[in-house]
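[step 3/7] inverse_fold.run input=structure_tokens len=343
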């Protein structure tokens, strides 16, 4: 367990496409991980030590193996990578290991050695809990694999992470919401939501150019993610990422051909959620016909209240014909929003 209030740092080690014989329709791991070559042991040590040299005292540090299906790599290599990570655990620089893998690559015997090498978090690439979406995305595993592996991970006392996607072929808003409901039942500790992007050199790119696949618009993706984020947060699930990280390779016009990419996607989603809260208060207090409103919130929340390019303020003015929408800092009431009418 990560101590409360401790800074949590993950040292990411990308293992692009390692161990994965599958070709999911959306995936080009080599683009996503931002590197083409397999990582050598020396490079791995270099990455770890470069991170360690910048760490502040008292941080909870994990080495994270991402980018492929770790437990699909030949076992000897998995053990080699884990041994290197464990050297830094023994020296006291690192407290644990986390990794991502496929739901069908988890068995009791795999979990046994992962635990022995201090793997304390496993993130499963679940993507959807709808069989048709899994099939159309060529995932090669079933919903049952997800349920089985999640149970095994919990049973081994390892933290469960789940990665989901929206906007896959065959998916729609209702299926994404049903997926979230099913995922909540699996009780993951951490969760990621990725809107599907059309990445170069994937089968999805081919379908897109043939007019057989249309990605979600940015507006659709933000709106749906806001609803999903609200569901997960209401279930006390820590959503650690919404949207891909903008790296050099993952930016529009380079590896992304189409799709709802935005460098500050999560902020768009959080800001949409805040707008929803403000509108609920307006309706509850019957402020729809006021001349104007004042929104009280703490400093840390102001940018989400205003929204990028003042989108929330403009939306409220347009929708309710408010002449003024004032934002007032409220130092006493942290992370809460109060709305009052103004004359
Ligand atoms: S299982 Fe993961 S790494 Fe393999 S093709 Fe699918 S998304 Fe890519």
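[step 3/7] decode complete -> sequence:
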């Amino acid at each position: 367990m990560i101590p409360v209030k401790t800074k949590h740092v993950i040292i990411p080690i990308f293992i692009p496409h390692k161990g994965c014989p599958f070709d999911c329709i959306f995936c080009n791991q080599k683009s996503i991980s931002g590197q083409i070559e397999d990582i050598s042991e020396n490079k791995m040590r270099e990455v770890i030590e470069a991170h360690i040299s910048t760490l502040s005292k008292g941080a909870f540090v994990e080495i994270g193996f991402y980018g492929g299906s770790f437990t699909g790599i030949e076992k000897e290599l998995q053990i080699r990578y884990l041994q290197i990570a464990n050297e830094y655990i023994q020296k006291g620089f690192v407290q644990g290991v986390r990794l991502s893998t496929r739901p069908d690559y988890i068995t009791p015997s795999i979990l046994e050695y992962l635990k022995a090498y201090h793997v304390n978090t496993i993130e499963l690439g679940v993507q959807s809990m709808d069989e048709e979406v899994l099939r159309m995305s060529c995932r090669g595993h079933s919903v049952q694999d997800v349920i089985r592996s999640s149970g095994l991970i919990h049973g081994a006392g390892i933290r469960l992470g789940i990665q989901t996607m929206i906007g896959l072929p065959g998916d729609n808003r209702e299926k994404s919401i049903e997926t979230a409901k099913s995922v909540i039942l699996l009780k993951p500790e951490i969760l990621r939501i990725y809107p599907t992007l059309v990445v170069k050199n994937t089968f999805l790119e081919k379908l897109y150019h043939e007019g057989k696949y249309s990605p979600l618009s940015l507006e659709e993706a933000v709106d749906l993610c806001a609803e999903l984020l609200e569901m997960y947060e209401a279930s006390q699930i820590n959503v650690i990422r919404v949207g891909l990280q903008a790296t050099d390779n993952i930016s529009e016009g380079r590896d992304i051909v189409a799709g709802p990419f935005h460098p500050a996607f999560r902020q768009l989603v959080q800001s949409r959620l805040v707008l929803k809260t403000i509108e609920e208060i307006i309706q509850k207090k019957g402020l729809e016909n006021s001349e104007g409103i004042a929104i009280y919130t703490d400093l840390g929340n102001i940018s989400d209240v205003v929204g990028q390019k003042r989108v929330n303020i403009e939306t409220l003015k347009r929708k309710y014909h408010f002449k003024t929408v004032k934002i007032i800092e409220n130092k006493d009431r942290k992370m809460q929003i109060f709305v009052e009418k103004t004359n």
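[step 4/7] annotate
The longest strand covers residues 119-127.
The chain has a mean pLDDT of 90.
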